[in-house]
């Protein structure tokens, strides 16, 4: 009779190692980038549109295709796909490592408070190490308009990065770091906590139980978990894009001097709604992106659970 509790305790402590979480995230990132790059291009164009050239998502997309060709919807794919793969690798791996700090030593469980802090820490880390420099390059490439590549200032991702470093110093690659940290930290805190909660509420799925969700189940949980972030972090995303896109004028000056100044300037010149510009494309891109990423990641971690956790000696 005394053996049963020991079995339960041991099973409750079973967990997927951080390196497996990192691998699952990298594979999910590749698939997500290829599927959703056009939406990201449209989102960036709308956020940079101060003169009202685009009337909405459909008009923006059709205008880009008509004036620049279909391939323009995949502008910046190389840095975007690389950045997503590295970002999800770091995000999933670091979140798993942070969660080990907040695990209950007796039950092996992580509280929602611990999940929020772990997610925020993973978001801050990915923002500083990967997201900011890659998005600076991606946004500079995406904002270039026209059908003649030879007229573009930036000829490709590497040339773009080199030009930024030469003209704006190495720190130019970290333009907009502050709003990026706030956006990613908040997003991941909410996303990881919500994903776990939806898995438990909808499918009675607990990490380490040796069970794997069906892809459609992971997609539903991931989609729902990805909806809250864009509403909470809209202003940070708009400010991030403006700071990353701006270059020095002829006198060496910058329109926006920092995150707070950018928020105040955009509000004064364009109104409060402008701080949530591009929200609809973000909602079209982030929740589906999370659905795709988690569908892939959960299958990878599910295979690991079935092979190594379900059949592990307890």
What does it look like?
By secondary structure, the protein is mostly helical. The protein has a domain at 214-305. Helices cover 70% and strands 0% of the residues. It is built from eleven helices and no strands. The protein has helices at residues 3-12, 18-47, 57-68, 77-102, 112-142, 157-168, 177-203, 215-225, 228-245, 259-270, 279-309. Helix 2 crosses helix 3 (57-68) and helix 2 runs antiparallel to helix 11. The longest helix is centred in the middle third of the chain and has 31 residues, at 112-142. Belongs to the mitochondrial carrier (TC 2.A.29) family. It holds the Pfam family Mito_carr. This is Mitochondrial succinate-fumarate transporter 1.
Task: Compute the CA-based radius of gyration.
Answer: 21 Å
| Content-based structural category | mainly alpha
Low-confidence stretches: 1-12
Strand content: under 5%
Largest sheet: none
Number of strands: 0
Task: Specify the oligomeric state.
Answer: single chain
The number of helical runs is 11
N-end to C-end Cα span? 15 Å
The secondary-structure element order is HHHHHHHHHHH
| Average pLDDT metric | 87
Helix content: over 70%
Shape descriptor reads: globular
């Amino acid at each position: 009779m005394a053996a049963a509790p020991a079995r339960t305790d041991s099973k409750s402590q079973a967990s997927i190692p951080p390196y497996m979480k990192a691998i699952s995230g990298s594979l999910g990132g590749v698939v997500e980038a290829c599927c959703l790059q056009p939406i990201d291009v449209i989102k960036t164009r709308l956020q940079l549109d101060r003169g009202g050239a685009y009337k909405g998502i459909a008009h923006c997309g059709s205008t880009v295709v008509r004036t620049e060709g279909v391939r323009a919807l995949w502008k910046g794919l190389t840095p975007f796909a690389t950045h997503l793969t590295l970002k999800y690798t770091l995000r999933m791996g670091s979140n798993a490592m942070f969660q080990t700090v907040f695990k209950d030593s007796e039950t092996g469980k992580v509280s929602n408070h611990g999940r929020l802090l772990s997610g925020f820490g993973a978001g801050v880390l990915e923002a500083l190490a990967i997201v900011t420099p890659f998005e600076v390059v991606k946004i500079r490439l995406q904002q270039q308009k026209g059908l003649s590549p030879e007229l573009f200032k930036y000829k490709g991702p590497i040339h773009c990065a080199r030009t930024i470093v030469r003209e704006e110093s190495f720190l130019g690659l970290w333009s907009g770091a502050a709003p990026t940290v706030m956006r990613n930290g908040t997003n991941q805190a909410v996303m990881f906590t919500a994903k776990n909660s939806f898995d438990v509420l909808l499918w009675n799925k607990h990490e380490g139980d040796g069970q794997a969700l069906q892809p459609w189940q992971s997609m539903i949980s991931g989609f729902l978990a990805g909806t809250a972030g864009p509403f909470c972090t809209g202003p940070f995303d708009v400010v991030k894009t403006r700071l990353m896109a701006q270059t020095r004028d002829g006198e060496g000056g910058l329109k926006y001097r920092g995150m707070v100044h950018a928020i105040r300037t955009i509000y004064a010149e364009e109104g409060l709604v402008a701080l949530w510009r591009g929200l609809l494309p973000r909602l079209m891109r982030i929740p589906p992106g999370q659905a795709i990423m988690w569908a892939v990641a959960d299958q990878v971690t599910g295979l690991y659970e079935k092979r190594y956790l379900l059949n592990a000696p307890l």
